[in-house]
Each structure stands twice: as C-alpha cells, then as structure tokens.
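Proteins fold reproducibly. Take a sample protein:
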Amino acid sequence: MAIKGIFVTNISHNSPKFRIQVDEFLNKAKLIPNLELIEVKNQHVLSYLNNNTPDFCLFWDKDIYLAKRIENSGIKVFNNPETIYLCDDKALTAAELAKARVAQPRFFVFPLHYWGNIIEYYEEYKEELLALSFPLVIKERFGSFGDQVYLAHSEEELKKIIKEHGTKALLAQEFVSGEKGTDYRVNVVGDKVIFTVKRVNDKDFRSNINQGGTASLVKATSEIEDLAIHATKALKGHFAGVDIMLDAKGKPVVIEVNSNMRTVAVNKVSDIDLTLAILSYIVSNI
C-alpha cells in the first residue's frame, strides 16, 4: 500500500536557488518503495486537504499558522511545527537552548519596539549589549543563508549596523574566536548524526556555503555530536542542521539550529544521502 505525502513549499520560492532543493526531495522520494510525494504550494494546501488525506506532510515553509492547521487536521507534520517556530526566530532558539542548558555563545536580544528604529533607544540598553564585548555578531532574528549577519569591531561600527538594520528585530551574539571563518554543520535525523561537514571561508567570518564557504566531510568528535543531538532534542526536532563552532578553548558551542536544513550541497561531499535519510525517517515514523 502506497504511503502518500505532501511536500509543502512557499508561494514565492520559485527561483533555481530554492527549486533545486524541492526537486531533490521529489526525485529522491521516487527511490523509496511505495512512497508517493507530491508538492503542494502553501496557498493551495487547505483546499487540497478538503478532498485528500495524505499520510504525512513534509513542511518546507515557515508559515506556522498553516503548519498547525495541517497538524490539527490529524496529519503528522515534519518537521515539528514547534521546531520550525523556534528555529525561525533566532531569539527563541537561544532562549530554548538556554533553558535546556545547551552550550552557546552569550547573547543579547534587542528590546521589542513598536515603531521607528531601535537605535533611537540605544542609551537605554547599551550597558547590557556592550557587556558582551567586541567584536560582536549582530543578526536579524529572521534570516537564512548568512545574509542578515553582521560583524562589529567597535561601538561606532555597532551603532552604524543598528542604524541600518534597526527597524528589524535583532539579536547580538558574542564572537566565537576558536577557528576563523569555520563551523561544523552537524546533520541530525532522529537521535543520530548522519554526517558532519566542516565549512570554511577564508574571506569572511561567515562560513555559509552561500557566502563563499567550502564544505568537506569530517568525523566530528563525540562532544560535537552529542551537543548537536542535545540541541535538536531541546528544540523538539525530528531532524535539524546544527551549526557548531569551537570557542577559544576548543569547546563546541551551538550557533544556530536549522529546522529545514538544505541537503543538496552537503550531499556532494558525503557518500551518505541526507535527503534519503530524512525521507526514510519520515516513512518509519508516521
């Protein structure tokens, strides 16, 4: 008997950058016996469910309202909607990791403000912010591919970054100085690490492949693997791409957790297929 699933994608994700990941899942699903996976754009999901009852949903979007609607209809959603919600907002990620005592850099969440630019209130929060010490990493709380991540070496640079981006919700992290432009993407599915890639960028502090970083397959230490699994469980994920860096003492700390990790680029350096690992996990856990 066929196992039928829907692969929910966003209405605006039609560029080659996003289509390559969508096609990866749809094509790899054909390799799993009795699995039928079809793409349904988010704007059509609710009408589709009026006439169809899939066995599961692979949710490759960030519309939590829609993910909860699907889950409330009795369909199991991968990743867990709560995981997507927590990972989408870097401040919520940090808060949840702190609650679970997962090692991470010290951080500061800029105050919520209803209008204008948060730079206008700089004097009121700067004491807590500057307690992190320079250099500081400033991130927009909602962002991907390293595109909304900035580095400040001084208070002058910091204020300039806040002024340019302070109409958005922001987070500051202490700079992790163990290995310049280097991190480890640990790919967790279920309660095990499938494989780890080391990403290195000699020209930027951001190691993301999208920012010019290169990836190579590595065998992570048990300390790094255990930390990645702990972080995934803390965020209630079925799977996750956990970004880990080493601090100045060589201790691993979690930088970010990605609920919808991309599999295409990392598959190129591994003989284990991450896409198939995710799909196989879903089939086994419906």
